[in-house]
Amino acid sequence: MNLKEELYNQCDAFVNKRLQNVEDVISSNQNALQSETKNSAGDKHETGRAMLQLEMEKASQQLAGINQMKEILAKIDISKFSKIAHLGSVIETNSANYFLSISAGKISAFNIDYFAISVSSPIGKLLLGKQEREKITFNNNVNPLCI
């Protein structure tokens, strides 16, 4: 397994774990809503239903974000190599290493830490389209790129 494939698989696992968590919350809330319906009426009942409805809306928004991440991952071609930073690029600098993909935070591959970042994040926007050995300045650090 190569580096890019390993990083991609970790991002995919990150998304699938989040998806499972959100699906568990939705299922739990649906069960709670059904049991609330069977309970007695009144202000306490209405407050409980309203809170569950808010939780369901929040989970639905999270689900939409997860689906968006899945779409982005589907666009990544891990076999594509280029000297210009693009979606799916692995970029190494003196201060940090990046995988242009989704915002999944710090991941490790082959005992090296990388940050899975979105191309719409500030550092992602800065890196996108840059060429190998080009220098970037981020957080007052100047770094040459290795793509």
Notes on the structure:
With 147 residues, this protein is of the alpha+beta class. It folds into two domains: 73 residues; 55 residues, no CATH class. Helix 1 runs antiparallel to helix 2.
Sequence-ordered SSE layout with sheet pairings:
Elements: H1 3-38, H2 43-75, E1 90-92, E2 97-101, E3 105-109, E4 112-118, H3 122-127, E5 135-138, E6 141-144
Helix pairs in contact: 1-2
Number of helices, where a helix is a run of at least 4 consecutive DSSP H or I residues? 3
**What is the domain tally?**
2
- Please identify the oligomeric state: single chain
Overall 3D form = elongated
Kindly estimate the percentage of residues that lie in beta strands according to DSSP. Answer: 15-25%
Number of strands: 6
| Distance between the first and last residues' Cα | 18 Å
Task: Describe the sheet with the most strands.
Answer: 4 strands, mixed
Strand order of the largest sheet: 1-2-4-3
List keywords for this structure.
about 150 residues, elongated, alpha+beta, single chain
Summary of the model, kept short:
With 147 residues, the chain is α+β, with helices and mostly antiparallel strands. It is built from three helices and six strands; from the N terminus they run ααββββαββ. The longest helix has 36 residues, at 3-38.
